[in-house]
Input
Amino acid sequence: MDSVEGLLSYHKVADDRVTHHTVAHFTELAGIAFGNLYALLLLLMELLATLGDFDIQPFGGFIGEEALDLGCVLGELGLVEEGLAELDCLLLDSVFFGGSYHLLTYASQRTSATVRLLASPRDRGDCFRCMGSPLRIGFVSTRFHGTDGVTLEAKKWARVLEEKGHRCFWFAGKLDTPEASSYLCDKAFFDHPEILELQSRLFDRKERGRETSDQIHALREEMKDALYKFCAKFDLDLLIPQNILAIPMHVPLGLAMTEFLAETRTPAIAHHHDFVWERERFVHSCVPDYLRMAFPPQFGGKFRSVVINSKGQADLARRAGLPSTVVPNVFDYENPPPAPDGYADDFRAQLGISKDETLVLQPTRVVPRKGIEHAIELVRELQKRGRKICLLVSHEAGDEGMDYYHLLKARADEAGIRCHFAGDRIGEIRGEDADGNKVYTLWDAYPHADFVTYPSLYEGFGNAFLETLYFCKPMLVNRYSVYTRDIQPLGFEVVEMDGVVTKNIADQVEAVLDDPEGEATMVRHNYELAGRYFSHQVLHRTLGQLVGELFGEDS
Output
């Protein structure tokens, strides 16, 4: 370890007078490693005991009538955070966590306070961290960019953690996070050409050659080196892998993350959004050994698994024997949507939607599991009844190919409805496209919607559902499995369908659209309920508990 410079000193309290005493000045404590914390504290106490008539019992005793400011000594040495130097304290207990941390408990002789510290013999081995003090937290994924569900939820977690005083940093292959707190590793992106080519050879086949294994291992080492550099650069205390240990979109990155955690024993909270067994395209592979190793890994100790729904919790326990905590997706219901700023006043006019037209918004990506054909059928049925209506699909197609998009276009044409795929006009940020057309955000679109469709066949949870509640819009929801288990029992008032848009479903939607007062009551009820179960305050509590489990108290 590096040499340590400081003063051995103490405060002596007698007759309400405080005097400061210096024992010695030193530049090095030879032989005292911070993996042996007892030895250091015993040395300090022994030195202090020689200076006065003090009764010192290092691990649980008392100091007699005069208080000894051991906190001051540790403060002078730079071994405790600011504030602890004012405490006169004795080490009561030390718990060894297996190579990475010691939990130290000090008792104040002036008050009834108990102070707990974490000692870490890592690169910064000469520094203690006060329990509950700010942590440096690293988020790791393939991308933190745009409006996909993983990115949105990760940024909500980061916001809550930063509100608690922690600092957050980002590692991915595609980033729109602040440069000063980010580490870009191009090959960590699942859409990187080399990764796409490799992944195409790993699934829908049962055999792999040595060349494929060698490529996986080479990329794993490259990813692991980058993770080591990321953690060293930002001096991280805690890692939060986002979905990379659940779904094998990037097999080498999942392996690298698993090995890094095994080698460093860095505390981690793995946030699982989608599991390998939930995606049909990952059922058959030539890498079952790697999937068993890292998706998810079998860790205990300072490793916690978080899932976003109760089904995921049950499946993880049944398939992998791993405990987990359910942390649902959340939204900032404490702060209602901002008032319109005028930018999107021309939204309808720009997209060719008249003011007297009922606008049905489908606020999702264009992929088969979103069930957009049901939204088309609903609009067709309402149009048959004489309603002037338009369906607006907010996101661009292409995430999973273009076949589904072409199918929807053909179905809309057959139904004779106006279906506007507006992904080229609704982006991540406001601005203009290459032709000078105005570009809006999804948050610009919601206020103009009269009704929202969410007919998904499957969802990990339901970000669009939460957004619709946030913007106080009525909606149609298909009763996908997570909805029926985790959301429906809470009592939200929405139009529900079971896989088919029937005449009765259309009747219910029409009744909502024709009753503004009833609609207002409905959406107000939904907003209040959402604030109770899915607000940032819920996330504050659950993240505080998780970090507290890893670092000793609610953080």
User: Anything to note?
Assistant: The longest strand covers residues 17-26.
